[in-house]
Amino acid sequence: MMNFKNVTHCIFDMDGLLLDTETLYTVAYNSVTQEHGKTYTWQHKAQIMGFKSTDAVQTIIDMLELPITAQVFEDKLTTLYQELFPKCNLMPGVERLLRHLKENNIPVALATSSSQESSDLKTQRWKHIFDYFDHKVYGGSDPEVSQGKPSPDIFLIAARRFPDNPDPSKCLVFEDSPNGVQAAVAAKMQVVMVPDPQLPKHLMKDATLVLGSLEDFKPESFGLPPFVA
């Protein structure tokens, strides 16, 4: 059993962790790349997970050598997102964990690389769940987040915006992406990773704890109130 440090605050990523959107991103990206005879694969996905949208798009263009600009790519994606994102579902264990933390007065924040506009589209069916957050940091549109994951900016900003401005070591991050894990480690925070089952094992090595689902999380491992049976 690993020795985890006790924490007082929790910070959550969104895409692929709270919401099942990663498959939708894959559908959308492939809709664009296949117009040019190229396929967006897991190999590409593992590299851009957690990136801001603009960085992700430019990286895909570079990797696949697509003959289009980032703006054209993003415009096509925006149309696809309008159709796809409102359909996304919660990942297992999300509602139970967030409600538990809120009921026990554990401060919680959202730290997503998505813009607020994109996030609002994805969460419209789940507003009652996302109301549990004390505050939200939208990396894709927040002017304070100058660098996206794997830089630590978004998590340090999320911590600072708690009223009591906790030390980063007192914050526990929940992530699904390797870039997000790197960002949390760089912020000197512990990080629980819930990766996609297809993610190569070597990309999970820096996480404090790796779980198959948020349903498997035991809050007491990090000094948080346990679930009541």
UniProtKB/TrEMBL annotation:
Highest taxon of source: Eukaryota
SUPFAM superfamilies per the UniProt record, alphabetical: HAD-like (SSF56784)
Pfam assignment, any one: Hydrolase
EC class (word): hydrolase
Cofactors demanded by this protein: Mg(2+)
Family from the record: Belongs to the HAD-like hydrolase superfamily. CbbY/CbbZ/Gph/YieH family.
Alphabetical list of NCBIfam families matching this protein: HAD-SF-IA-v3
Protein's UniProt name: pseudouridine 5'-phosphatase
Organism for this UniProt entry: Dinoponera quadriceps
High-level lineage: Eukaryota, Metazoa, Ecdysozoa, Arthropoda, Hexapoda
Name of encoding gene: LOC106750738
